[in-house]
């Protein structure tokens, strides 16, 4: 390639804006997939349209819950959405009781034709850096 062609290529490349550096992927271990119980009874209906697949969820262990000894409250941006379904919460509750840091990630937000809604999330824990 001639010096003139190299110079021309350098000028052309310099005129393109630099692409932003890709974000490092966060390393997490998926513990399980779960459903949200109580969707209609808490704040989920009011924020449904704002939530997106991939959003982080805060999982809060409620050891003193009178209805479920393994209760785990699910929050999005400080708003109580409901609880991890009872059929899904026992293993996660044991891990949280042992001090394992768990959080949730929205994986499905589906509105059915009969106006019912389905909300599924993954329970994840961060992996320690190497």
Short summary:
It is built from three helices and six strands; from the N terminus they run H-E-H-E-E-E-H-E-E.
Keywords:
35% strand, Alpha-Beta Plaits, single chain, six-stranded antiparallel barrel, 130 residues
- The radius of gyration computed from the alpha-carbon positions, rounded to a whole number of angstroms, is 22 Å
- Number of discrete domains: 1
Which structural class matches the secondary elements? alpha+beta
- What is the name of the CATH topology? Alpha-Beta Plaits
Average pLDDT level: 80
Share of helical residues: 10-25%
Query: Major sheet: order of its strands?
Result: 1-4-3-2-5-6
Distance between the termini: 44 Å
CATH-scheme architecture: 2-Layer Sandwich
Overall CATH class: Alpha Beta
Largest sheet: 6 strands, antiparallel, barrel
* E-strand count: 6
| Poorly predicted tracts of residues | none
Please specify the SSE layout and strand pairing.
Layout: H1 3-15, E1 28-37, H2 44-47, E2 56-61, E3 72-76, E4 79-84, H3 86-97, E5 103-111, E6 117-126
Antiparallel strand pairs: 1-4, 1-6, 2-3, 2-5, 3-4, 5-6
